[in-house]
Design a protein that fits this description.
single chain, alpha+beta
Length: 226
C-alpha cells in the first residue's frame, strides 16, 4: 500500500495537538464505501520492556470472512503515552505494517476511536486520512461522551453524544455482554459503521477483524520474549 506522508511523526505533544486540530477538518463523514470486498483488522501490542511495538494487520474477504493475508511490523516506540495522542505513539508502527500488504483493503477496522475523540481525530480517523481509506473505530471503552445503556440483545445500540453532537454508537454485539464503542473514522457514517461491525460479530463481543489482530500481536509479543 502507498502511504501519504502528510506530516512528520517526530513532533512534540504540543505540535501533535495542533496536527490533530488541522487534520480533523479533513475527516469525511459519508454514507460509507460501496462494493466492499476486503476488510482489514489492525491492532498493536506494546512491549514496554523493550520500548517497542508490534503491529499486526489481517485482511479478510467480506462475503465469507475468509482470511487472505496477515502481516506484522515491529519498531521502537518514539512517542510518550498521552491520552488522546494514541496515533502518534502507535500510528508509525501500524503504517509500517500497512506498507507490507499485498492486498489493499477496501475498509479498515481499528482498535481505537474514530471521531469520538476530544479533537475529533482518534487513530481510526487519523490513519484513515493518511491511508485515504474508509475506516471504523471499534473501542472497548469510552473516551468522551455520554449515552444511555442500550438494550441487552445483540444489535441494540444507543447514540454516543458529546456537546450535543453524535460522535459514535454504543453497540451491543452479543446478548448480555458489555457494549463496544463504534465511531466513524473516515469516509464513513454511524449507520454504515454499525452495519459493518455487526457483519463481523460472530458470537464474540469484539468483531473478528480487530479481535484476531489483537490475539495475533499478543502471540507475537510472547514469542519475542522467548
Amino acid at each position: 500500500m502507498k502511504i501519504k506522508e502528510i506530516h512528520s511523526w517526530n513532533v512534540s505533544p504540543r505540535e501533535a495537538f495542533e496536527i490533530q486540530k488541522n487534520l480533523a477538518r479533513q475527516v469525511i463523514l459519508s454514507d460509507g464505501p460501496k462494493n466492499v470486498e476486503t476488510v482489514a483488522g489492525s491492532d498493536i501490542a506494546l512491549d514496554l520492556d523493550r520500548e517497542e511495538g508490534i503491529a499486526g494487520i489481517i485482511i479478510y474477504r467480506l462475503r465469507d470472512g475468509i482470511e487472505l493475508e496477515r502481516v506484522f511490523a515491529r519498531s521502537k516506540i518514539s512517542f510518550p503515552y498521552i491520552p488522546g495522542l494514541l496515533a502518534f505513539r502507535e500510528g508509525p508502527i501500524l503504517l509500517k505494517a500497512f506498507q507490507l500488504l499485498k492486498h489493499e483493503p477496501d475498509l479498515v477496522f481499528f482498535d481505537g476511536q474514530g471521531i469520538s475523540h476530544p479533537r475529533g481525530l482518534g487513530i481510526a480517523s487519523h490513519l484513515g486520512i493518511i491511508l485515504d481509506k474508509p475506516t471504523i473505530g471499534c473501542a472497548k471503552s469510552r473516551l468522551i461522551g455520554t449515552y444511555h445503556e442500550p438494550g441487552i440483545d445483540k444489535g441494540c445500540f444507543s447514540p454516543l453524544i458529546d456537546q450535543e453532537k453524535q460522535v459514535g454508537v454504543v453497540l451491543r454485539t452479543r446478548k448480555g455482554v458489555r457494549p463496544i464503542f463504534v465511531s466513524p473514522g473516515h469516509q464513513m457514517n454511524h449507520k454504515s459503521a454499525v452495519d459493518f461491525v455487526l457483519s463481523f460479530c460472530d458470537g464474540y463481543r469484539i468483531p473478528k477483524p480487530t479481535r484476531e489482530a489483537d490475539r495475533w500481536v499478543g502471540q507475537l509479543k510472547v514469542k519475542s520474549k522467548k
